[in-house]
């Protein structure tokens, strides 16, 4: 396989693999390839537990797995929720209504596109789409020579299975607590402004899964903590876990796991801090890494 590889000798028995979705397990068409699915099934046949670890919702993760013909544990909403392979909820870490109202009020004041994940639904104000289109158009007009294909690609991943409301106050009337607030901005300075506003909060953590977004969760929620919870539930030492991902919201599970694998399409600083670099998501990097690790640990 391509990519650089080096190993941690102390990972003597691989028992759990946590795999990110976007930019990792999913290809450009937002599908799990047959090769990736086959590698996951082989690992499971050898007794290795497999978890999907994603910023997306639990339902989205389950749907991707179903389409690929696989089953797995799910760490969703960047670790705010953890479900067993059988669908049992193992962990739920929420943002309270007062904190959510504070976040949403600031986003409204500054005309950000945002989505709020709650039990059973993702809510967004209907006018948010117009705000975002206006922002993208203004950004394109101000940067006529810049390649904005990445921006358009990332923008195309939003608007997924959301429920629209006429006014943002309706979101706060729907639930008493929330899992995550997802925010998208065309201009990188607006992403930085979000970090500046909420990065020092005692109650929140801020991560990014793409160049043009930031995501807000309860400070106790992270993919790393989700992985620890799952490992403990399964009776597995987290040192015997492998984490595979490509972005900054994967760093906490890289740090929690005994072995970390960066995708070939990950940023240089992500690759630098992982134990192994595999191929890109378009070249079935997950399958290549899993097959290599299965050969290494199980022969």
From TrEMBL:
<dbReference type="GO" id="GO:0016791">
    <property type="term" value="F:phosphatase activity"/>
</dbReference>
<dbReference type="InterPro" id="IPR006379">
    <property type="entry name" value="HAD-SF_hydro_IIB"/>
</dbReference>
<dbReference type="InterPro" id="IPR036412">
    <property type="entry name" value="HAD-like_sf"/>
</dbReference>
<dbReference type="InterPro" id="IPR000150">
    <property type="entry name" value="Cof"/>
</dbReference>
<protein>
    <recommendedName>
        <fullName>Cof subfamily of IIB subfamily of haloacid dehalogenase superfamily/HAD-superfamily hydrolase, subfamily IIB</fullName>
    </recommendedName>
</protein>
<dbReference type="GO" id="GO:0000287">
    <property type="term" value="F:magnesium ion binding"/>
</dbReference>
<dbReference type="GO" id="GO:0005829">
    <property type="term" value="C:cytosol"/>
</dbReference>
<dbReference type="Pfam" id="PF08282">
    <property type="entry name" value="Hydrolase_3"/>
</dbReference>
<dbReference type="InterPro" id="IPR023214">
    <property type="entry name" value="HAD_sf"/>
</dbReference>
């Amino acid at each position: 396989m391509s990519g650089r590889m080096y190993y941690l000798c102390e990972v003597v028995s691989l028992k759990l693999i946590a795999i990110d979705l976007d930019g990792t397990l999913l290809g450009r068409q937002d599908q799990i390839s047959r090769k990736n699915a086959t590698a996951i099934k082989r690992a499971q046949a050898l007794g290795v537990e497999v978890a999907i670890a994603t910023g997306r919702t639990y339902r989205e993760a389950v749907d991707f797995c179903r389409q690929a013909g696989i089953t797995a544990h799910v760490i969703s909403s960047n670790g705010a929720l953890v479900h067993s392979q059988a669908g049992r909820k193992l962990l739920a870490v929420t943002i309270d209504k007062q904190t959510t109202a504070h976040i949403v009020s600031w986003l409204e004041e500054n005309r950000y596109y945002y989505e709020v994940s709650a039990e059973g639904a993702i809510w967004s104000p209907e006018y948010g789409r117009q705000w975002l289109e206006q922002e993208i158009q203004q950004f394109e007009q101000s940067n006529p020579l810049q390649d904005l294909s990445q921006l358009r690609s990332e923008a195309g991943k939003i608007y997924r299975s959301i429920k629209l409301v006429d006014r943002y106050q309706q979101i706060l009337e729907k639930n008493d607590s929330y899992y995550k607030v997802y925010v998208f901005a065309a201009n990188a300075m607006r992403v930085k402004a979000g970090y500046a506003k909420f990065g020092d909060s005692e109650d929140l953590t801020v991560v990014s899964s793409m160049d043009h977004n930031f995501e807000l969760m309860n400070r106790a929620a992270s993919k790393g903590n989700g992985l620890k919870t799952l490992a403990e539930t399964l009776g597995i030492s987290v040192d015997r876990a492998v984490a595979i991902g490509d972005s900054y919201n994967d760093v906490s599970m890289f740090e929690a796991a005994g072995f970390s694998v960066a995708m070939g399409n990950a940023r240089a600083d992500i690759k630098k801090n992982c134990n192994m670099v595999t191929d890109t998501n378009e070249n079935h990097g997950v399958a290549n890494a899993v097959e290599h690790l299965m050969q290494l640990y199980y022969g």
